[in-house]
Design goal:
Oligomer: single chain
Distance between the termini: 99 Å
Largest sheet: 7 strands, mixed
Shape: globular
Number of domains: 1
Structural class: alpha+beta
Number of helices: 4
Order of helices and strands: HHHEEHEEEEE
CATH architecture: Roll
CATH topology: Nuclear Transport Factor 2, Chain: A
CATH class: Alpha Beta
Number of strands: 7
């Protein structure tokens, strides 16, 4: 074999090896995220379930320490220590049920964004007529160090003008 033939053969072999390494490197840099994406989507179902459980501890397990709740017409509730008493008061005043169909859900690494619409039914614990409301919402989920997707931000509001006080 001539020097030129050996050079071409070794160059071709190197190109094949580098190509294989590059292909392996590309697949390693783009891991399969389907399990993570499915877990993020499951966080929506879990969050709705714990809201409808009307159990403060269960709901608090689904939110981050720095959670922010942004209810239309109110100042934001910032942090678990502030959200907890608000949620506890809500659950003591009402038995609530939320239907929250997802309109859009995007997962990007350790963060997921959800746009939803809702119908909520709040039955006063002390008695009285149920209060039914409809509206929109936007949630940011974050996968935390323990691998669990939790609510970091939840903003919601009615899809109608405010009801005038009687």
């Amino acid at each position: 074999m001539t020097h030129r033939a050996r050079y071409l053969l070794s160059t071709a072999a190197c190109a094949l090896v580098l190509g294989a390494c590059n292909a392996a490197g590309n697949s390693a840099s783009k891991p399969d995220t389907s399990a993570s994406d499915a877990a993020a989507h499951q966080a929506h179902a879990n969050y709705t379930r714990v809201i409808n459980s009307n159990n403060t501890d269960s709901l608090m397990s689904m939110v981050t320490e720095d959670v922010v709740y942004m209810e239309s017409g109110s100042k934001p509730y910032v942090g678990k220590a502030v959200v907890r008493p608000w949620i506890d008061g809500y659950f003591k005043a009402f038995h609530t049920t939320w239907d929250k169909p997802v309109d859009d859900f995007v997962v990007s690494g350790d963060v997921a964004y959800e746009r939803y619409h809702y119908t909520s039914t709040d039955v006063p614990v002390a008695g009285g007529k149920p209060i039914v409301d409809t509206g929109w919402g936007f949630i940011v989920y974050r996968r935390e160090a323990d691998g669990v997707w939790r609510v970091a931000r939840d903003a919601w509001g009615p899809d109608h003008p405010p009801v005038a006080a009687k």
